[in-house]
Amino acid sequence: MNENTGHNRPLDKDLRGYLESNADIVTHIIKPVSIDDIGALSAQSETPILFENIIEHPGFRMCDILVKHRHTQCRALGVPQEEYLSTLARRLRQPPRGFVDVKTGPVKDVIFTGDDVDWTRLPAPVHSALEGSPYISAMNIVRDPETGFYNSSHAGTSPTGPKRGFMSFATPHTHQIMAKYRAMGRDEMPIAIVFGVHPAYEIMANFSGMHMDLWGEMEMVGTIMDMDVEMVSCETIDLTVPAHAEIVVEGLVNLKDSFDAGGVNAPTGYFIPREQTLPEINVTAVTMRGDKPIYRNHQTVPDTDHQPLPRLCHEAILYNRLTEIGLKVHDVRFPPWGAALSCIIQVEYSRPGLINDALMQCMGSPWLNTKMVVAISPDTDIDDARDVYYAMATRCDPSRDIITVGNTRGSPYDPSAAPLPGHDPFRIVGKMGIDATAKPRHDIREFERAWPKNWGKVKLEDYL
Ligand SMILES: [Mn+2]
Fold it and tell me: Does the predicted TM-score (pTM) go above 0.85?
């Protein structure tokens, strides 16, 4: 592959292949690390990190921070950074490729069933001092019993015993599918929790939008990877799973009962909600690779994969919407430092009026992550919070370039939003759109930045 452009075709079929092909951005930690320090160490990395030696779990490796920034997200699709968003946006408009069923795969190297099942042996870390107990944040798959489509998400799970845990389904589709199973008279729903797949699987698994009548997220993984994905049958449940995963946990969700569970680290970085009532999973099998399987962790706080990953398909959907209204879209970003409540759009526009429509498109998006939307011009560095702040300070006239709308859908994870009694966990809050673009109504020459002579060419480090 070309290390400078991110070109990596064809893509690797598994996580370990991905980590090898992209070794130039992977940090390998060889020194022994305690499971209690994994979260704090992972969250200090901006690029993929692989722990080779976990003191309490010598049989496993662990990786994290696969898709925190655009320059690593683009590696998941094997395209240069500047082509990543338009590529994802276009592939999401293509039909589902489905998958190829195979007889076996590396995830079947080791199989635990019956009395041998104990998923507390997996290296699930505690994600915050407030949370206090181990938390699993891997991809999961359920099948819609009506359509047969494979819906996936990243519902957080707290293991409470060798074969038990509580699952927090925060996204609506799994709830709809659970309701379908109940309506069929079933009191259990098969589910597979999948650890350690190529990051493109995870980007697609977090899709949130209209799709249930046409495909499930898993049927689209091959579409966005532009290659076939292989699936293999589970041991104890009627479901197939990625053959090249590192670890798979099979289980049944109890559809009859729910249980009081503790709070959770929200993507906003707060410990919200502090109490939840959750369904239980009963674990029926664990299968994994034989050669030091890689446990995929998604450290939830502070700024990690947890903020951008569930929003990457949102960005692609908004890219399509904004393009439809006639804007040339350079980028759409839910920045890792934006608390999963804010979005930046980087656009060129041909005439006044388009920016407010663009801001409204984003503010009124289906998701609860666009409380604050900022529009910037192509010369503002979208990766640099300082530069975005600078644009807000110098290119926005608050008396005419800020829109606010009151009483809109609030995020359950936003402490500034008011709880809605009777509609727990939903909240109500306003929204804000900020036009921080360079405006044609001004003398456009005044927005030209002044820089030192030879700025960007002479480096201080060359003189040290
Ligand atoms: Mn879905």
Answer: yes
